[in-house]
Amino acid sequence: MEHNLYIYNTLSRRKEQFIPIHENKVGMYVCGPTVYGDAHLGHARPAITFDILFRYLKHLGYKVRYVRNITDVGHLENDADSGEDKIAKKARLDELEPMEVVQYYTNRYHKAMEVLNVLPPSIEPHASGHIMEQIDFTRKILDAGFAYESEGSIYFDVEKYNKKYQYGKLSGRNVEDMLETTRELDGQGEKRRSVDFALWKKAAPEHIMRWKSPWSEGFPGWHIECSAMGTKYLGAEFDIHGGGMDLMFPHHECEIAQSTAALGKESVHYWMHNNMITIGGQKMGKSLGNFITLEQFFCGNHKLLSKPFSPMTIRFFILQAHYRSTVDFSSAALEASERGLSRLMEGYSRLQKLTASSNSSVDTTGLRTKCEEAMCDDLNTPIVISYLFEALHGINLIHDGKDTISASDLEELKSVFTLFVEDILGLKPDNQASFEIEAYKHAIDLLLNMRLEAKQNKDWATSDKIRNELIALGFEIKDTKDGFEWKI
Ligand code: ZN
């Protein structure tokens, strides 16, 4: 198959023509979420970026095996080799089994992806379901001589690896400098060098997520899961590996080192990274108070949001920027996206109702090629969107009777819009009604919670006012042991 798809390879730092290993099959791996909290904008961007790539590769005729993992073990606090496991910590705080936390947030992640119209991957492996594979992979690295055992844990020997291969080439770090600046700290803990990273960690007595291994009862390091599962499902060499730019170092750098050490050569042909979303120019973070979950966007339930924003508005907002540019979020920017999306969808539905004339007074024939070319130029979705807007102008002129379109041109225009708007960009008419119902359900809950608070404070006047006015509007309200129930 011959296509002129060019994608930016983070490893070579240039756009390269995409040539798959196998004629018409593509293997693609993307790092998925660590499931210990609700998905936010930072999760939506890689999911949508690689959804676009998945859709476009399929459109080009490839059979794509898309693997997106769920991290449910081994990801420790601060992305470090020490500290508590993020899932175990959440389980301890909520008094749940770690796998209850995993299931709960995995379900919620799936729900968020579904409303964002992100297609499910072909395989979604869990790290905790692939402990054997991770132990085997670790053993391969040990056998190759690029790891060592220390107090029941296994660490990757970065310095030794760097003598044969090159550590740091993806993120552009110089390992000699890293070794130099950390020299005094080295050899004080279990690791020989502070740049070394864990492949297997012996579990401390209080650590609840643990498995047997040849070295100790413990758990895998964070990075080894992607090397092990990528190899298992896509082979020792595969086409594309993606993720957010924040994963480039250390996660992806370590993945390259692990796979090269174990298999003797590099696994991945094209590394792709989406850029980050900032809020008011700042990085998103729980401690900065600017951390907005997707659900809060959909309900408008956050102090930085002027109103609720539908999942399609979020999707369109992300697609309006090229995936390698940063995106700065603000309520005003989302409102602009909302207006843009509704203009696009109105034009799309207007197109369905146009009537054909005997000939065309406007030329709409180049649209398909222009959109294909933009997609082939490293998935340039903002340019595709700008071409669709240009075409909208023509559609409006035809609609107003100022221009005409022939039957065959009209068919072609409809087909291009369906292909790019629905199939490739994955935009669909917002179910505004159900979305508004969600927001209004939250408003009723909010009022009834305020009433509950008023009751607790013995503020009967407020409590009765809320109750009576809701009843007057046609609501039925029932007090229960845990709070309230309501219906219309
Ligand atoms: Zn990963």
Radius of gyration: 26 Å
Anisotropy-based shape: flat
Number of strands: 15
> Which small-molecule ligands are present, each listed once?
zinc ion
CATH class of the largest domain: Alpha Beta
Strand content: 5-15%
CATH superfamily membership of the largest domain:
HUPs
Mean pLDDT reading: 92
Distance between the termini: 58 Å
Assign the CATH topology of the largest domain.
Rossmann fold
Helix content: 40-55%
Which structural class matches the secondary elements?
alpha/beta
* Largest sheet data: 4 strands, parallel
Key terms:
3 domains, flat, four-stranded antiparallel β-sheet, alpha/beta, 488 residues, four-stranded parallel β-sheet
Topology:
Blueprint lengths: L5 E4 L4 E4 L7 E6 L10 H19 L3 E6 L17 H9 L3 H18 L15 H14 L2 E4 L2 E4 L1 H7 L10 H8 L14 E6 L15 E3 L3 H11 L3 E7 L3 H16 L4 E7 L2 E3 L2 E2 L10 H6 L11 H9 L7 E3 L1 H22 L14 H10 L4 H19 L7 H18 L7 H25 L3 H13 L3 E5 L2 E5 L1
Parallel strand pairs: 3-4, 3-9, 9-10, 11-13
Antiparallel strand pairs: 1-2, 5-6, 6-7, 7-8, 11-12, 14-15
Helix pairs in contact: 1-10, 2-3, 4-7, 4-8, 7-8, 10-11, 11-13, 12-13, 15-16
Bound molecules: zinc ion (ZN).
Zinc ion binds next to loops.
